[in-house]
Amino acid sequence: MNQHNKQNPVNKTDSVGVLQCIVCNKALKEALTGRVDQPSGGLAFQSHGHYGSTAFDPMDGHYLELNICDDCLRRLSKQKLISVAAAPCYQPAPRELWTP
Ligand SMILES: [Zn+2]
User: Fold this and answer.
1) In terms of residue numbers, what domain contains 68?
2) Average pLDDT for residues 72-93, to the nearest whole number?
3) What is residue 90's predicted lDDT score, i.e. its pLDDT?
4) Does residue 95 sit within a domain?
5) How far is the CA of 23 from the centre of ligand 1 (A)?
6) In terms of C-beta density within 10 A (0-12 exposed, 13-18 middle, 19 or more buried), how is residue 66 classed?
């Protein structure tokens, strides 16, 4: 167990890479077989945390990942709750569930 896991234990007994919308709980299927980081009908989002968060800011390369379905993205966009910006694409890495 690395330092991150001591501070922010993860539940390794559950499946890794939950394909479920964090907003409406809709189950999402894999867009590509065996790729839990690429939901069909939604997007995966990652955050490495940042200064200001009291929940997650490990500063060791770990990041959180969550999914939002396309229907929720459209609805939240109409509510002006989503911004867009240009940034480089992320590199996929092994993931595990986060339990604060
Ligand atoms: Zn949703």
Assistant:
1) 29-78
2) 86
3) 67
4) no
5) 5
6) middle
Residue 6 Cα to ligand 1 middle (Å): 31
Domain count, the chain: 1
Instruction: Determine the average pLDDT of the residues in 58-66.
Output: 91
Residue 20, in any domain of the structure: no
Asked whether residue 24 is assigned to any structural domain, the reply reads no
Q: pTM to 2 decimals? A: 0.71
Is the residue at 57 inside a domain? yes
2 CA to centre of ligand 1 in angstroms: 33
Whether the predicted pLDDT of 46 surpasses 50: yes
Band (pLDDT 50/70/90 cuts) for residue 9 is very low
